[in-house]
Amino acid sequence: MRVVIVGAGQAGAALAAKLRSLGHDGQITMIGAEPAPPYQRPPLSKAYLLGDMPEERLWLRPAEFWAQNGVELRLGQPVTAIDRAAQTVTVGEEVIPYDQLALTTGSAPRRLPAAIGGDLPGVYTVRTLADVDAMRAEFRDGARAVVIGGGYIGLEAAAVARKFGVEVTLVEAAPRILARVAAPETSTFIAGLHRRHGVTVLEGAALDRITGTDRATGVRLADGQEIAADFIITGIGITPGSDLAAAAGLVLDNGIAVDDRGRTSDPAIWSAGDCASFPYRGGRIRLESVGNAIDQAEAVAANMLGADKPYTAKPWFWSDQYDLKLQIAGLNTGYDRVVTRPGPPPSFWYYRGAELLAIDAMGDARAYMVGKRLIEAGKSPDPDLVAGAPDLKALL
């Protein structure tokens, strides 16, 4: 069986390695648009940008691993087309056949429109090794930066910039940072953390445009306020990498739609990671996390080889900002109550009725681990116990 994997990121690497560990001895070709071998993305905007991690330590596997395990890496060569009838993919002038195809095409950052200055030099996104290499020289003591977007990417970039001594203004159009993904309690805690580190956090501040002609010189807000800057970082979300799948006529639904085995609408094509939406608790979700990329890709690898087992997601996430490790377990969608376990450090527990859905732990690893175990076991402790029990283990 010839397996072709399109996308050489976290999910693609996990899928290829799992195929080999499960005993698949057929041809595996992994094709990546970037020239670098499969690497970790989370450290890009933190340890790598700070200079604490060399490029080689980003790599998910040593360079020789892929050759030793018979995985052909085709890097810096994007796939331009899928021919489902012929079961081939096109790379440049070459046509590569497959028996089973896996799309692990990840996601791409949303960009500001060129009409409002989004394509000016000095405007950066934080997604790839090349992105971070391009902006590194901007991070110098006394430089001025505007970060557009109060999600985790923007907040992490702001934290690193402050460590370099950069003057940072963070602009969020919504009434509060993290409004899409977290409760007001978490937003307030994180905003306070950044303000204590010298970041000017502007919430409910819509962007009008990036200023400048030959290069970005700052931003103008919808209320007319202008903020000067030496460079701009945009963190306004990501979009699933589903263009190739769409062109091939695969079914999309907030990404590449797969069933609970990871199979797309074409029985010979599978998908995993940021680009894939899958069944979850009676609906469909798409998870943008390292944990899901690995777990789903490994489940797909097993199903490619005939395991025929459903993938059950166990959502978890983290974000490093300054000396804080924010850890999240579960999904808070549909919560109607937040229970605060006082700190320091605090944690915020999301409930829907009597059901525990998720936890945001503000540097409290113990609370995170207990909450994660409870959620995965389907157990929901009494909210009053969560708020007041002196021993978290008692909740188990």
Walkthrough of the structure:
The chain has 396 residues and is an alpha/beta fold. It folds into three domains: 3-108 and 239-304, 3-Layer(bba) Sandwich (FAD/NAD(P)-binding domain), CATH 3.50.50; 111-234, FAD/NAD(P)-binding domain (3-Layer(bba) Sandwich), CATH 3.50.50; 323-395, FAD/NAD-linked reductase, C-terminal dimerisation domain (Enolase-like, domain 1, 2-Layer Sandwich), CATH 3.30.390. Helices cover 24% and strands 29% of the residues. It has eleven helices and 26 strands. It has a five-stranded parallel beta sheet. Strand 4 (79-83) and strand 5 form a beta hairpin. Helix 1 (10-21) runs parallel beside helix 9. The longest helix is centred in the C-terminal third of the chain and has 15 residues, at 290-304. The chain starts with a strand and ends in an 8-residue tail after the last helix. The mean pLDDT is 96.
Radius of gyration: 22 Å
The amount of beta strand, in percent, is 25-35%
> What percent of residues adopt helix (DSSP H or I)?
10-25%
CATH topology of the largest domain: FAD/NAD(P)-binding domain
CATH architecture tag of the largest domain:
3-Layer(bba) Sandwich
Quickly list its features.
five-stranded parallel beta sheet; 29% strand; FAD/NAD(P)-binding domain; 24% helix; alpha/beta; globular; 396 residues; Enolase-like, domain 1
Describe, in short, the structure shown.
This protein has 396 residues and is of the alpha/beta class.
Fold blueprint:
Blueprint: E1 3-6, H1 10-21, E2 28-32, H2 47-50, H3 55-58, H4 63-68, E3 71-75, E4 79-83, E5 88-91, E6 94-97, E7 100-103, E8 107-109, E9 123-125, H5 129-135, E10 144-148, H6 152-163, E11 167-172, H7 184-196, E12 200-203, E13 207-211, E14 218-221, E15 226-228, E16 231-234, E17 238-240, H8 243-247, E18 256-257, E19 269-271, E20 276-280, E21 283-285, H9 290-304, E22 316-321, E23 324-330, E24 337-341, E25 347-352, E26 355-362, H10 365-377, H11 383-388
Parallel strand pairs: 1-2, 1-7, 2-3, 7-19, 9-16, 10-11, 10-16, 11-12, 18-20
Antiparallel strand pairs: 4-5, 5-6, 8-17, 13-14, 14-15, 20-21, 22-23, 23-26, 24-25, 25-26
Helix pairs in contact: 1-9
